[in-house]
Amino acid sequence: MPVYNTSKYLMECLESIINQTEQSWELVAVDDFSTDSSHEILCDYARTDQRITVLKNDSKGIIGALRLAFKNSTGTFITRMDSDDLMKPKKLEILKSSLLANGKKHLACGPVKYFADFEIGDGFNKYETWLNGLIKSGDNFQEIYKECVVPSPSWMCYMEDFINCGGFAHDTYPEDYDLTFRFYDGGLKCIPSNEVLHLWRDYPTRTSRTDPNYADNTFIDIKLRYFLQLDHDNKKKIIVWGAGKKGKKIAQKLNEQNIDFEWICDNPNKIGHVIYGKKLLKLDDSIFLGSTQNLITIANTTAQESISATLRDNSLIKNKDYFFFC
Question: What's the count of helices (H) and strands (E) in the chain, helices before strands?
Fold first, then answer.
């Protein structure tokens, strides 16, 4: 558990861990150069509970803290925790039981719920509903190029599988999304789950809201890099759908890597224009002549449904011939 200036919420977080129905656990908490009373709170708890180990980060940042915690951890299973969130009482018990029932090469996940001292925004509510729907069906990786499909930190896996997937060895942010792609690459299967196990606390200064490592452009970088590494068929032509911010970012990145592509959109003010050396084309059935892989950056859900129907009508297969990147 990385800890940085969360003293306001830390005691409640630690109590949620101590009060787990599963009592066979160790917590390795790494203070990431906090300037508030977080370190003192951790040490107070560690003095009364031998299952809690407190360390100070030796390299600034969440990834360094996670790496140090992992280096000092033992056990058969592993998960992570955020020091401003809360575990539901049966979280560890349910995740561990799921893994014991299904065996190695599985990833146990639990539905999540946002909470805050203010009204949760519509975007967060939609993400929560979408993500929990995937978790309940176990089809998380079907939508991996849209958003992070494994809720950090509401997951658990066998330590052996975690190590085989690279653990916290990578320096890529956002680290939870990068790890999700490595779970996907490692062939781990998500175990369906229905019960909310983790509570995400939202507040204005939460790291995911303020740290530039979690900006939209970093998510696009990860998506495209892993697509090219894991799912790209270089015998097929890439078609980028949409000329908004995300479409432009992908086009720019493909150009930088000298990867040829076609670019289509439905905006009459952009069709025919040349951006990044590529002429924007209007959707036409001739686009589908030959083998293609389509990267769709259009966020509107109604438009996505229409696009899916069009692609299926042309015998294209989801997550083989077309991928939703938003």
Answer: 11, 16
**In the block, residue with structure tokens 């990385």:** 2
In this structure, are residues 215 and 175 in contact, taking their beta carbons and an 8 Å threshold? Answer: no
Q: 267-324: per-residue pLDDT in tens? A: 999 999 999 999 999 987 667 667 899 999 999 989 999 989 988 888 899 999 999 9
- Residue 323's φ and ψ, nearest 5 degrees, are -140, 130
Sequence-separated (6 or more) residues with CB below 8 Å from residue 132: 111, 112, 196
Q: Which domain holds residue 74?
A: 2-214
DSSP assignment, residue 212? Answer: G
Q: Which of 54, 17, 26, 49 is nearest to 39 (CA)?
A: 54
Distance (Å, rounded) from C-alpha 53 to C-alpha 213?
27
Query: Bridge partners of 262?
Result: 239
For the record, the structure tokens of 24 come out as 């066979």
Residue with tokens 């809201």: 209
Enter the pTM of the model: 0.95
- The per-residue pLDDT for range 124-133, each reduced to its tens digit, is 999 999 999 9
178 and 273: one domain?
no
pLDDT of 163-183, one tens digit each? 999 999 999 999 999 999 999
Structural contact between residues 100 and 122, judged by C-beta atoms closer than 8 angstroms: no
- Domain tally, the chain: 2
Q: How many Cβ atoms from other residues are within 10 Å of residue 104's Cβ?
A: 12
Copy the structure tokens of residue 23: 């009592």
Q: What CATH number does the domain containing 238 carry?
A: 3.40.50.720
Residue 288: the pLDDT is 64
pLDDT of 159 above 80: yes
